[in-house]
Amino acid sequence: MSGFVEKPKPVEVPGLTHLHTGKVRDLYRDEAGRLVMVASDRMSAYDWVLPTEIPDKGRVLTQLSLWWFDRLRDLIPHHVLSDELPAGAPADWAGRTLVCRSLEMIPVECVARGYLTGSGLVEYEQTRTVCGLALPEGLVNGSELPQPIFTPATKAEVGEHDENVSYEETARRVGAETAAMLRQTTLAVYSRARDIARDRGIILADTKFEFGWADGDLVLADEVLTPDSSRFWPADSWEPGRAQPSFDKQFVRDWLSSPASGWDRNGQLPPPELPAEIVERTRAKYVEAYERLTGSKWA
Ligand code: ATP
Ligand code: MG
């Protein structure tokens, strides 16, 4: 079982048409045809959207994406038009809402990996490849790869896992020229971000980008380089050969899998509400990620 314990109802705002409720974000269209992305405080773990929210999480993700977009714009244009609150929107949307160009999205989850873990590790252990790319012997969970690799995936429905696909399959789906642009841009953006994060004591193990077209130009879309779209590991506790502590979700995962939660992640029942202490520690981790990466105090 997976998905929402209870799917949230869209907020009604005059002039906005609700398009989609994702695990974390809600999408609307405004009267000018622009996309309005609202990042909620919802959190997912073990394929579930948890019944308890993490205060400030949506704002942290939104402000972090903006910060990164700014640092990447010489490599690729991004989709954000404004971070001003649309007229009539609830005050609670402030800081978590971005008005974006509505793009023709390219249906590929563009993943870059500099380290081996997750679905990459699973494939590697079976075939010594990731997305069909051959890798050296002897790598373990958390190993740094000889060089970053582009490992595209297809998007799955809520509760399903994205599926890794080969570069050749990606080229068949979107065309050879587009596939080459996606790979080149994904790796360039990843490398820039990895270096920035490394300077701040954070390993950017892997990350996912989405791109779209606007008048023939490739544009970086969605959220970027947030703890929800990336694996960030504290560099000082990195130790290949075991699962690395997740920067943001570790307290939640540890608690959910402990006897204290009374929850069986392989069972049929949804996860329980989180205790206040776990919520507060997780909130502090998201804020710490923001502060360490940007070097600014969370306001
Ligand atoms: P998940 O919770 O698994 O991420 P999701 O991807 O369906 O689910 P969100 O990530 O909340 O949900 O929704 C963002 C959606 O908006 C994605 O489908 C993404 O491809 C799309 N999107 C992002 N930026 C743009 C844009 N500029 N124009 C059009 N669509 C966009
Ligand atoms: Mg998404």
UniProtKB/TrEMBL annotation:
Assigned GO CC terms: cytoplasm
Enzymatic reactions: 5-amino-1-(5-phospho-D-ribosyl)imidazole-4-carboxylate + L-aspartate + ATP = (2S)-2-[5-amino-1-(5-phospho-beta-D-ribosyl)imidazole-4-carboxamido]succinate + ADP + phosphate + 2 H(+)
A Pfam family the protein falls into: SAICAR_synt
Residue spans crossing the bilayer: none
GO biological process, one term: 'de novo' IMP biosynthetic process
One Gene Ontology term of the molecular function aspect: phosphoribosylaminoimidazolesuccinocarboxamide synthase activity
Leading EC class: ligase
Keywords (A to Z) from UniProt: ATP-binding, Ligase, Nucleotide-binding, Purine biosynthesis
Domain SAICAR synthetase/ADE2 N-terminal: 19-266
InterPro entries in the record: SAICAR_synt/ADE2_N, SAICAR_synth, SAICAR_synthetase_CS
EC numbers on record: 6.3.2.6
Residue stretches in coiled coil: none
Pathway it works in: Purine metabolism; IMP biosynthesis via de novo pathway; 5-amino-1-(5-phospho-D-ribosyl)imidazole-4-carboxamide from 5-amino-1-(5-phospho-D-ribosyl)imidazole-4-carboxylate: step 1/2
Superkingdom of this protein's organism: Bacteria
Family recorded in the similarity comment: Belongs to the SAICAR synthetase family.
PANTHER family: PHOSPHORIBOSYLAMINOIMIDAZOLE-SUCCINOCARBOXAMIDE SYNTHASE (PTHR43700:SF1)
Protein name: Phosphoribosylaminoimidazole-succinocarboxamide synthase
Organism: Streptomyces triculaminicus
Gene (name only): purC
